[in-house]
Amino acid sequence: MSSPVDDNAATLDCLDRQMIHALQVDGRAAFRRIAAVLGVSEQTVARRYRRLHGSGFLRVLGRLDPHRQGGTEWLIRVQARPNSARALADTIASYPQAVWVGLTAGGSELVCTVRAPGEDGRNEILLERLPRTAQVLTIRSYAVLHRFDVGQLYWSGYPDLLDSDQVAALAPARATTTPGPLRKGDEVLLHALAADGRRAYADLAAHTNWPRSRVVTRIAELRDSGALYFEVEFSPRIMGFQTTAYLWLNVTPSQLDSTGHALAEHPETAWVAAVAGPENLVAVVIVRTHDELYRYINHRIGALQGVHTTEISLQLHQVKQADSLSNGDRLTALTPTS
Question: Is 214 helix (H, G, I), strand (E, B) or coil?
Answer without folding.
Answer: helix
